[in-house]
C-alpha cells in the first residue's frame, strides 16, 4: 500500500468515528431533554404534515365545482394523493392520476400508489 492509500483510509475512518460520536451525542442530548421534561420535537410523516398545514382559502375567487366524494371502497385515495404530492407532483396531476386507477389497481394501497405514480409519470390520465 502506498502512503496516500493509507492516509485516505485513516481519513475515512476518522470521519466515520466523528459521525458515530456525533450520533451518540445527539442521542444523549435527546435523552436529557426528555428527562428534564422538555418536550422533544415529534417526528411527523410528510403525509400527515401536508394534511395539517394545508389551509383552504376563506372565500373562493371564482365558482368552484364541488368534487365528487369517493366511495368507502376508495378509502386511501387521499393518502395516495398526498404521497404523490410529497414526491413532487402537482396536486391536480396527482388527483387525476389517483382517481383514474381502476378498481383492480386499487386493491391495495401499494398497487394503487404504483398505478398512480405510473400515470403521473406519463402526465396524468394517459
Describe how the helices and strands are arranged:
Layout: H1 3-36, H2 46-53, H3 77-86, H4 91-99, H5 109-122
Helix pairs in contact: 2-3, 3-4, 3-5, 4-5
Task: Tell me about the largest β-sheet.
Answer: none
Overall number of strands: 0
**Which structural class do you get from the secondary structure elements?**
mainly alpha
Distance between the termini: 57 Å
Task: Give the integer mean of the pLDDT values.
Answer: 74
Helix content: 55-70%
Our estimate of the beta-strand percent is: under 5%
One letter per element, helices H and strands E, the order comes to HHHHH
What is the total number of structural domains?
Answer: 2
Choose one word for the global shape.
elongated
**Spans of at least 5 consecutive residues with low confidence:** none
Number of discrete helical segments: 5
Radius of gyration computed on alpha carbons: 24 Å
Give descriptors for this structure.
mainly alpha; 5 helices; 126 residues; single chain; 0% strand; 60% helix
What does this structure look like?
The protein has 126 residues and is an all-alpha fold. It folds into 2 domains: 1-41, no CATH class; 44-53 and 73-126, no CATH class. The protein has 5 helices and no strands. Helix 2 (46-53) crosses helix 3 (77-86).
Amino acid at each position: 500500500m502506498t502512503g496516500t492509500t493509507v492516509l485516505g483510509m485513516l481519513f475515512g475512518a476518522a470521519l466515520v468515528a466523528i459521525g458515530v460520536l456525533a450520533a451518540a451525542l445527539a442521542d444523549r442530548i435527546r435523552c436529557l431533554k426528555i428527562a428534564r421534561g422538555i418536550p422533544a420535537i415529534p417526528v411527523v410523516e410528510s403525509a400527515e404534515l401536508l394534511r395539517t398545514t394545508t389551509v383552504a382559502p376563506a372565500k373562493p375567487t371564482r365558482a368552484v365545482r364541488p368534487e365528487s366524494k369517493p366511495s368507502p371502497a376508495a378509502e386511501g385515495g387521499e393518502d395516495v394523493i398526498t404521497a404523490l404530492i410529497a414526491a413532487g407532483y402537482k396536486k391536480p396531476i396527482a388527483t387525476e392520476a389517483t382517481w383514474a386507477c381502476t378498481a383492480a389497481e386499487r386493491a391495495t394501497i401499494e398497487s394503487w400508489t404504483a398505478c398512480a405514480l405510473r400515470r403521473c409519470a406519463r402526465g396524468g390520465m394517459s
